[in-house]
Design a protein that fits this description.
Blueprint (H helix, E strand, L loop, with lengths): L2 E4 L4 E7 L9 E5 L5 H7 L11 H4 L7 E10 L6 E6 L5 E6 L2 E7 L5 E4 L7 E9 L2 H12 L37 E6 L2 E13 L2 E12 L6 E6 L2 E6 L4 E8 L16 E9 L2 E10 L4 E4 L10 E4 L2 E3 L1 E6 L11 H13 L4 E4 L8 H10 L2 E5 L13 H16 L5 E5 L4 H7 L2 H5 L6 H15 L5 E2 L19 E2 L2 H4 L14 E3 L8 H7 L10 H5 L6 H9 L9 H24 L7 E4 L22 H9 L3 E8 L2 E8 L5 E11 L4 E11 L3 E6 L2 H4 L7 E7 L2 E6 L13 E8 L2 E8 L3 E6 L9 E2 L4 E3 L4 E7 L15 E2 L8
């Protein structure tokens, strides 16, 4: 039986060359594997926190230094025929040496490496050394050798197979990591092993079929067989050569569904390799039985991009995902679970793993399977032209093949995508002239990746890029395939989201600062202002603060004090995304998905994230939760006036009378009507608002509400800055709760977007609801987890009990 021995203990870190600051001794520092240079130096107290204050620039030297990891391990002959040294992840350019013998030169963070070391191992102590070359000068040198390619940032991340955002992004710190970022082990085996196991599962009537394709590596000639077992059933086949296919039919299986559409039953699959002396190797997988396809059949308005699971069209409610820490080795399974459960709590059903980060871990995908979160994984190419020359071409083929096989069995995986924005960049960003005939990645997106998927995982859908138009139209054509919308953030007001009706929007978003606790704990600025030194270091977007201001002014005045500025920018971020989501969702089935940029952050930063780098939800989180609720009532402008759109994503029908009213801010009903609706399961109904209700007498002091079974939509005629909103009058009542405290808020007047910034009271406290609009006399109760009863009175402080009203009254 194959035996694996982890080699994670006893490592030391050494600075081997480069600009180490004077007085800093880095020779024999204890190192953790998996880990990286930064985490080792932090643990040793040799560097400050790179995320704090202005430390980023102070630590840029790390990416200019060559580093060496060393370890000694004992070994004795154990009778096995083969001994393989396996590296699951090496970041990034390194020479691997065992007992003075070079095993290999590596230069790809995104794949694993295996070396036959049976002739190199020695009885007793074995010396293992991994010598890393500094990533920044290596990338620069490769860029010179391969030729410059267009990209949006200075350092040539396209010339090295390393996480692109590791060199910095418009939300990300530049860390320039090196290290053994995934596991290292010694595998010992005899006769044969399972070198590759490809598993697919598909429903067949009431049952299901599991297909296993296994590729073997042999150490000796022997008669071999492979068996597949699941749910008490088994199938087996003899191996002729080095590969075999085994098909297992199960008589009765339950289907796997996305969250909100059904349950997520998973079946354990065991693949066993046997020889004359018994079991030699095994591989365990978990599968779910479901069908998936993307409907791109042209229709009268263009080309849809509709996800269909188990023959049911699914409106995608998604968010883009970046590495959850700029030092990814710090993200363990528990942290993945916290983040993905937050995604489910925000009513998301899909996570898109963006192409400038990493191929996400097995933990990530296993949790997506369990939670019913659909996963879309980009191949790792983002916003740049990529060389197709060697050695990158063969490295990319190796990484792609390995990760296709690794991920393809997961029922949550519904799309592999060739790249992020590169097809668009080639068409619109001046690349053609700047490339002047050089390669840019087309071979990967249109030839290599589809060929590998056809060979290794034909059941997994593929798109050459995002955005992408299936019929060959412009890649960012809103009537064909997927679209990215960035003009709003970059140049326009967010109300212009309503000018677009894409078939599917895969990226759009708006910036806002992190929570107050995260911001103030990560900066030392005194005074703290939007433009103070630490704030600028933690604002990576080009002209980011200018765009924040320009995006706020049509809706609110810019506040004079920092805390109110912070709230205004957070609220405007939430309002912008809410407006977009309400618009896109009410155009289903023409529009069948909206993926917000972005769910998470990798450090404390002003960004597009809904959850900040310290894992705290921003107001945007509540905007997602509200806009993506399974049942919603939304008021939207249409050509003929206002309309009420009732959306029902639940499996049962929703019937009743929608009460539509035009009201004064004082709460008086100025016009009212009742309209009966019958909304089918997974359906929507749109009804016009009667003319007397839709026409305001005074745009500054009137609103329209529409309500069905306690679900309410609100439409304000005027912008908050031009309205008659008064200072909020809210009474607060606190009750103890096993998880914290229940806060009942009663409005004495109209209060818009009422939100509790409870992290200011207790940094770990989280409110269950936010962005609540209350009419005069109404109340709501919000559970605040992690808030002690003695802390609860502080919730009534106006810096905690926030509303849009506070941004209007001066």
């Amino acid at each position: 039986m194959t035996r694996a021995r982890a080699l994670h203990d006893g490592w030391t870190l050494h600075a081997a060359g480069g600009p180490v600051p004077g007085g800093l001794e880095i020779d024999g520092v204890p190192a953790q594997v998996p880990g990286c240079v930064h985490t080792d130096l932090l643990t040793a107290g040799l560097i400050p926190d790179p995320y704090h204050g202005v430390n980023e620039a102070l630590l840029a030297w790390i990416g200019l230094v060559d580093w060496t990891y060393r370890a000694t391990f004992a070994w004795a002959p154990d009778g096995e025929q083969r001994h393989d040294l396996v590296f699951d992840g090496v970041d990034t350019v390194a020479t691997i040496i065992l007992n003075g013998q070079v095993l290999g030169e590596v230069a790809n963070q995104h794949r694993s490496y295996r070396y036959d070391v049976r002739t190199v191992l020695r009885e007793g102590a074995n010396e293992l050394e991994v010598r890393f070359r500094a990533p920044v000068p290596y990338a620069n040198a490769e860029s010179l050798r391969l030729g410059a390619r267009p990209r949006p940032y200075p350092l040539p991340y396209e010339a090295i197979r390393k996480s692109a955002c590791n060199f910095g992004w418009d939300w990300g710190i530049a860390t320039f990591t090196s290290g053994l970022w995934r596991g290292v082990r010694l595998e010992s085996w005899s006769v044969a092993r399972l070198a590759e196991v490809r598993v697919s599962a598909a429903p067949e009537g009431d049952g299901g079929r599991v297909t296993v394709d296994a590729r073997l590596e042999r150490a000796a000639d022997a008669a071999l067989s492979v068996a597949v077992s699941a749910a008490g059933a088994e199938a087996a086949a003899s191996v002729d050569g080095d590969s075999v296919q085994v098909v297992l039919d199960l008589a009765d299986v339950e289907r796997w569904w996305p969250v909100g559409y059904g349950a997520q039953p998973l079946t354990d699959i065991t693949v066993t390799l046997s020889g004359g002396d018994g079991e030699l190797d095994r591989s365990d997988k978990r599968v779910g039985f479901r069908t998936v396809r993307w409907d791109t059949t042209p229709d009268e308005t263009g080309t849809p991009f509709t996800l269909v699971v188990n023959d049911v069209p699914v409106f995608v409610k998604g968010a883009n995902w970046i590495p959850d820490d700029a030092l990814p080795v710090r993200v363990d399974r528990a942290r993945y679970e916290r983040r993905l459960r937050q995604a489910v709590d925000a009513n998301l059903n899909l996570i898109r793993v963006w192409g400038g980060g990493i191929y996400e871990s097995d933990d990530f995908y296993e949790l997506c399977d369990e939670l019913g979160l659909l996963a879309w994984q980009d191949f790792l190419f983002a916003c740049a032209a990529y060389p197709e020359e060697k050695p990158l071409r063969s490295e990319i083929a190796a990484e792609a093949g390995e990760n296709i096989v690794r991920l393809a069995a997961h029922p949550s995986l519904v799309l592999l995508t060739g790249n992020n924005e590169n097809l668009w960049g080639f068409e619109d960003w001046g690349w053609k002239a700047r490339l002047d005939g050089r390669t840019w990645g087309a071979y990967y997106y249109y030839e290599l990746f589809p060929a590998l998927i056809t060979e290794l995982a034909p059941h997994v859908p593929y798109a050459p890029g995002s955005p992408f138009s299936p019929g060959g139209e412009h890649p960012n054509d809103e009537q064909h395939g997927s679209m990215h919308l960035w003009e709003q953030w970059n140049r326009q007001d967010w109300i212009t989201y309503r000018d677009h009706t894409p078939r599917f929007v895969a990226e759009f978003g708006w910036q806002g600062p992190p929570t107050w606790s995260t911001l103030t704990s990560s900066l030392d600025d005194d005074p703290l202002t939007p433009e103070s030194p630490g704030m600028i270091v933690h604002q990576k977007a080009m002209e980011g603060n200018v765009k924040l201001t320009n995006g706020l002014l049509p809706h609110y005045r810019v506040p004079d004090d920092m805390e109110t500025w912070h709230w205004a920018m957070q609220l405007n971020q939430a309002n912008a995304v809410s407006a977009a989501l309400d618009h896109f969702r009410t155009h289903a089935p023409h529009t069948m998905g909206a993926i917000v940029w972005q769910l998470n952050d990798c450090w404390p930063v002003t960004s597009w994230a809904a959850i900040d780098g310290e894992e705290r939800p921003k107001p945007l989180f509540y905007a997602l939760r509200n806009a993506f609720a399974p049942r919603s009532v939304v008021i939207q402008p249409r050509d003929a006036g206002l309309a009420v759109i009732v959306t029902n994503e639940r499996p049962d029908a929703w019937s009743g009378e929608v009460r539509i009213a035009r009201r004064s801010y004082a709460g008086d009903v100025l016009a009212e009507s009742l309209i009966a609706v019958d909304v089918a399961a997974r359906g929507r109904v749109e009804v016009p608002v009667p003319a007397d209700t839709a026409a305001p007498g005074d745009t500054t002091s009137e609103l329209v509400t529409a309500e069905l079974d306690g679900v309410r939509g609100v439409w304000f005629f005027g912008e908050p800055r031009d309205s008659a909103l008064e200072a909020p009058r809210v009474s607060v009542e606190v009750r103890e709760h096993p998880e914290g405290a229940e806060i009942t808020l009663t409005a004495g007047n109209l209060v818009r977007d009422l939100t509790l910034l409870v992290d200011k009271v207790a940094p770990d406290a989280v409110a269950a609801e936010g962005l609540v609009t209350l009419l005069p006399g109404e109340q709501t109760t919000i559970l605040v987890r992690g808030l002690h009863p003695q802390q609860a009175p502080a919730v009534s402080h106006p810096s905690v009990l926030r509303s849009a009203n506070q941004l209007v009254v001066r």
